[in-house]
Specification:
This protein is α/β, with parallel strands linked by helices and about 260 residues long. Helices cover about 40% and strands about 15% of the residues. Strand 5, helix 7 and strand 6 (about 175-180) form a beta-alpha-beta unit. It is globular and about 45 Å long. The structure holds 5-bromo-uridine-5'-monophosphate. Keywords: Decarboxylase, Lyase, Pyrimidine biosynthesis.
Length: about 260
């Protein structure tokens, strides 16, 4: 599916209901911005989600960093998702054998499958990880991304590893709807993957701990990704999260418009 097609055109061709709805939502809301809300209290998380909600297509959580997590948080987050029209992506990065990830996805304190529209996994364990997660997620109409590459310096997810990950996504494309990636890959006929890229910032290049930030225009226009994932660029010290989210939304959307009009 060429990068020059609109999100709406691509949504019509998608078989996975969550991916289809997500692509439609992006077009309706004119947003390819996902905000990574890495804060450690329930109140701060809800406050941030409410502030950035109007500008995002996807809220990315690390639910296990919230000190006072409870199911009430999940209820309130899903209510905010309805109010502002966004989806929720739990960036869980599953990385175990199929049987274990099945339990981690469905059970425990977080019961991720019960509320997260999208989650993700590493391919390190092999194909069984997809089979395990798919058993739980497919009946619930959930979607998954595979980590094909990472944004951090020295990442080992590259070359053959990335290529193998793409092959596995093709094999299970009813549930694996895309990638965490740093660029769009060469596509085969029938591919309709959604690419999401973390490590995005308008003002800074690095955090001194291996994170590498790229400009939204580079990510969407030059590298052909579909969604920019932004954390501290939006809510970092001294920033106004709503104003920053609007700024990133505009930067991401302008780059997308330029891309699809470049046919
Ligand atoms: P930042 O504050 O914009 O650097 O936050 C980036 C978020 O994306 C953070 O939640 C990371 O866990 C997440 N991330 C990443 O930075 N790089 C990756 O390769 C992957 C996820 Br996968």
């Amino acid at each position: 599916m060429s990068a020059s097609k609109t999100y709406l055109e691509r949504s019509k061709l998608h078989a996975n209901p969550t991916a289809k709805a997500f692509l439609e939502l992006m077009e309706r809301k004119k947003s390819n911005l996902s905000v990574a809300v890495d804060v450690t209290s329930k109140a701060a998380l809800l406050d941030l989600a409410d502030k950035v909600g109007p500008y995002i297509c996807l809220l990315k959580t690390h639910i296990d960093v919230v000190d006072d997590f409870d199911m009430d948080l999940v209820e309130k987050l899903t209510a905010l998702a309805k109010k502002h029209d966004f989806m929720i992506f739990e960036d869980r990065k599953f990385a175990d054998i199929g049987n274990t990830v099945k339990l981690q996805y469905s059970s425990g304190v977080y019961k991720i499958a019960s509320w997260a529209d999208i989650t993700n996994a590493h391919m390190v364990p092999g194909e069984g990880i997809i089979q395990g997660l798919r058993e739980v997620g497919k009946p619930l109409n959930r979607a998954m991304l595979l980590l094909a590459e990472m944004s951090s310096a020295g990442t080992l997810a590259k070359g053959d590893y990335t290529e193998h990950t793409v092959e596995m996504a093709r094999k299970y494309s009813d549930f694996v709807v895309g990638f965490i990636a740093m660029q769009r890959y060469a596509e085969k006929e029938g591919d309709n993957f959604i690419y999401m890229t973390p490590g995005v910032g308008l003002d800074q290049k690095s955090d001194g701990m291996g994170q590498q930030w790229k400009h939204p225009r580079e990510v969407i226009l030059d590298r052909g990704s579909d969604v920019i994932i932004v954390g501290r660029g939006v809510y970092g010290a001294g920033r106004d999260p709503a104003a920053e989210a609007k700024r990133y939304q505009e930067a991401g959307w302008d780059a997308y418009l330029e891309r699809v009009h470049q046919k």
